[in-house]
Design goal:
Strand order of the largest sheet: 2-3-1-4-5
Structural class: alpha/beta
Mean pLDDT: 90
Low-confidence stretches: none
CATH superfamily of the largest domain: P-loop containing nucleotide triphosphate hydrolases
Number of domains: 2
Shape: globular
Radius of gyration: 20 Å
């Protein structure tokens, strides 16, 4: 969790329908004062209030999105007001696939905030993505909620808050996934490991995940796997320090196979082990399809 000696301010932003309301409630459960849709003109006063009474306002979450009008400007105003008072906020950006967002708006019968100006929900979503590109680029944590349950969303947030404790490093996340369920939107880099022999076609291995020893031995014992891991070690040994030197605070790498249950899990765990051994920074691993299977 964040340092108890200083206030922690989370900024919750992202696409309409991606789960900002649910996320706000999760932050409330974690003891945060949640302020939703605060006018840009009041951000300076709010930042001063937090700075003046850090005990009372030790945990604060601000919800900023397109309702503020110019979302990038509102984010810049919030960041400037907080950083000017010695408070470095952590920005959470929530998103989801277009078809998921459309379904959610249909099920809830809520109007998209841009629907009056943009017509269709699909058109409004596309416009909002463009409007929030700059906001997404500056986010510390990006979460694709397309396939997340409430419990999984809570776990993602809690893990991200723990990573906040190391502000000088780069927060590293590995996601194993199945291509049949879609590529994780939050990934910066994607590696396809479907060229490796698939344990799914071996009867005694099929029921077991890539976390089990028999499957790990099968996947990691392949010559092509060892060659691939050699390439990734060399690549990340170069890329991670380079990203860090450029000021990047997070890196999300997705490892995909067909179903996301065997090869991608074993490979993600192997890469995570390499990263921890090299002490690049805090490492978080999420196996997206593990519960699905």
């Amino acid at each position: 969790m964040p340092d108890a000696e200083r206030p922690h301010v989370a900024i919750i932003t992202g696409l309409s329908g991606a789960g900002k309301t649910a996320t706000s409630k999760l932050f409330e459960d974690l003891g945060y004062h949640v302020v939703d849709n605060v006018p840009a003109e009041l951000l300076g006063d709010l930042a001063q209030l937090v700075a003046d009474d850090p005990v009372r306002f030790q945990r604060v979450a601000l919800v900023l999105d397109v309702r503020a009008g110019d979302a990038p400007l509102a984010l810049d105003a919030a960041m400037g007001a907080l950083e000017g008072r010695g408070i470095i906020p952590q920005v959470f950006f929530l998103e989801a696939r277009d078809e998921v967002l459309i379904r959610r708006f249909s099920e809830t019968r809520h109007r998209h905030p841009l629907s009056t100006a943009r017509g269709s929900v699909a058109g409004s979503i596309a416009a909002e993505r463009r409007m929030l590109e700059e906001v997404r680029e500056h986010a510390d944590v990006i979460i694709d909620t397309s396939e997340l349950s409430s419990r999984q969303l809570r776990e993602r947030i809690q893990r991200a808050l723990r990573l906040e404790t190391d502000m000088d490093g780069i927060a590293l996340q590995l996601i194993s996934f199945g291509f049949k369920y879609g590529v994780p939107l939050e990934s910066d880099l994607v590696f396809d490991v479907r060229f490796m022999e698939n344990p799914f076609y071996i009867d005694e291995l099929r029921p077991h995940s890539g976390l089990t020893e028999p499957v790990k031995r099968f996947v990691l014992g392949q010559a092509v796997t060892q060659r691939f891991l050699g390439f990734t070690r060399e690549f990340f040994d170069f890329a991670i320090p380079a990203y860090r030197s450029e000021g990047k605070t997070r890196l999300t790498v997705a490892i995909g196979c067909t179903g996301g249950f065997h090869r991608s899990i074993s490979i993600a765990e192997a890469i995570a082990e390499d990263w921890r051994r090299c002490d690049y920074g805090p490492v978080d691993v999420w196996h997206r399809e593990l519960e699905r299977s």
